[in-house]
Task: structure prediction
Amino acid sequence: MDDVVHAVGAGEVPLAVWHDGRLSIRYDRLLVESAQRFPEVPRLEAADIELFDLLDELAESERFRLDLDLEVGDMLLVNNHAVIHRREAYEDFDEPDRKRHLLRLWLTAHHRRPLSAAFWGTGRPDELSTGRGGIAPADVIVAAREGTRPNAAAVR
Result:
């Protein structure tokens, strides 16, 4: 059975779900607080704010926080269901050849974390109820076209 903690918002989306012995979390305090501008969104209560403050405090603590300085050519892959992450403010360069260039790629993993249907909340069309998406690796696309499965040993 899944243990679900709900955040407020259109259609009620859970903040966190325990499923198959793993905690999957979706935390975007700014988004949740921003939704408060809509009258149909339930008001945050003191306990909600206390929970968000605790999450922020834990995420900022030396015990859990990891600071990275990415350099040109570096790549960072993050599982959005397992890691709370953010970036710090930065000042960009005026010169076009020195400007920050960041690309986001949303991948579908071969051996992805199992997620409960409850993780996707309510108010979604049935075809989106799994919440998955992104770009499948090339060998998955080729295998699907050929009607075969990707070689699991080759992708580990």
Notes: Confidence is low (pLDDT under 50) at residues 1-9, 125-129, 152-156. Strands lie at 3-7, 13-19, 22-25. DSSP finds three helices and three strands in the chain.
